[in-house]
């Protein structure tokens, strides 16, 4: 069990000190609670802040939280200095049961409530307001500079950067933590060609028959048509799928919301790395299952060409709504 016992967002001293936490370490768990995770009278052993938690591990036996009956530990996920040398501390305490010497933890009985789910310490950075403002302003500026690009250079991009961006995307929150997404990274020129041909066949129908005049009017200013050269020019095309219930996948919740958030992370990560993207939605998209060899429970969501903009690329002159128009406070 993990409890955040102190910490501050404002650079104030933590309410409870490490020493105060350490004093609990002489306690033994109350009888009968061994398998169920300890609460506030549980044993705690300080191990200091030397080790950073594994950021990819959100649960598991080795994320600074004991699972195996080993002593519980105080974990300081980091004291983050700001430019002025201030520190904001967030201290989490991993509290796990320690059996008394020579005694095994008593197994839970039918009368006992079920053991609480396992937890690990929160690893979160806390910034004092000035540094927070700077970070927020820098991120807002970075994101405001993102644009959809429709003309790509054929220059390859490092696989590792794509991997890391997908890793960032896959860290997104998801309904019931089902993580209902698949990211298919297409770099093979033959497969990209098939993808483009199939997409252009659908897009030809869309632009010439299926799209309403109103829809065509709405997208006229982007100058798009059924030709999709970016699907072969871009060195990588990430096809994102929603993963629904299937033989190897559980029932997901809030799939579209979850995948949408993950794609937002992905676009942000790729842009942050200096790569250009387009969010492309050929309509309909079912052909992508065949091209990407994905099973039917995976449903195409978006196609994202990734790469460098072609030299001299220009983008539509569009204006974003000002903050006052998109945000209300109440
Ligand atoms: C869900 C979604 C679907 C989109 N589909 C297409 C598409 O099929 N083709 C295209 O050229 N742009 C597509 N776009 C890109 C939008 O036209 C673009 O995001 C918008 O014009 C704003 O421009 P910006 O991305 O440069 O800020 C799509 C964007 C979103 C969010």
TrEMBL record:
Skewed-composition ranges (Basic and acidic residues): 15-25
Region (Disordered): 1-84, 97-127
Signal peptide: none
Keyword field contains Flavoprotein: yes
Cited Pfam families: Nitroreductase
Transmembrane segments: none
Top-level taxon of origin: Bacteria
Compositionally biased spans, kind Polar residues: 1-12
Sequence ranges of Pro residues compositional bias: 98-120
Domain named Nitroreductase: residues: 144-308
Entry keywords, A to Z: Flavoprotein, FMN, Oxidoreductase
Protein known as: Nitroreductase domain-containing protein
Organism name: Catenulispora subtropica
């Amino acid at each position: 069990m993990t409890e955040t016992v102190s910490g501050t967002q404002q650079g104030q001293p933590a309410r409870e000190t490490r020493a105060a936490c350490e004093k609990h370490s002489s306690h033994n768990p109350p009888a009968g609670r061994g398998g169920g995770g300890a609460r506030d009278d549980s044993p705690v052993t300080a191990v200091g802040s030397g080790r950073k938690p594994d950021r990819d591990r959100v649960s598991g036996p080795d994320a600074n939280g004991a699972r195996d009956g080993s002593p519980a530990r105080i974990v300081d996920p980091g004291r983050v200095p700001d430019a002025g040398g201030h520190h904001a501390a967030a201290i989490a305490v991993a509290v796990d049961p320690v059996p008394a010497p020579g005694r095994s933890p008593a197994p839970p009985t039918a009368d006992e409530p079920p053991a609480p789910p396992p937890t690990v310490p929160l690893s979160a950075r806390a910034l004092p307001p000035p540094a927070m403002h700077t970070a927020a302003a820098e991120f807002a500026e970075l994101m405001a500079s993102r644009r959809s690009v429709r003309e790509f250079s054929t220059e390859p991009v490092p696989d590792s950067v794509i991997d890391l961006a997908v890793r960032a995307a896959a860290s997104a929150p998801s309904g019931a933590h089902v993580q209902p997404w698949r990211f298919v990274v297409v770099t093979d020129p033959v497969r990209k060609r098939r993808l483009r041909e199939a997409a252009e066949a659908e897009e030809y129908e869309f632009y010439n028959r299926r799209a309403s005049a109103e829809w065509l009017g709405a997208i006229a200013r982007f100058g798009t048509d059924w030709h999709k050269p970016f699907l072969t020019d871009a060195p990588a095309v990430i096809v994102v799928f929603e993963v629904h219930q299937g033989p190897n996948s559980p029932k997901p919740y809030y799939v579209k919301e979850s995948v949408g958030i993950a794609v937002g992370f992905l676009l942000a990560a790729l842009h942050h790395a200096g790569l250009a993207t387009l969010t492309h939605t050929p309509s309909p998209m079912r052909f992508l299952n065949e091209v990407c060899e994905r099973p039917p429970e995976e449903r195409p969501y978006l196609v994202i060409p990734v790469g460098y903009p072609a030299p001299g690329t220009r983008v539509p002159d569009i204006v974003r709504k000002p903050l006052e128009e998109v945000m209300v406070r109440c």
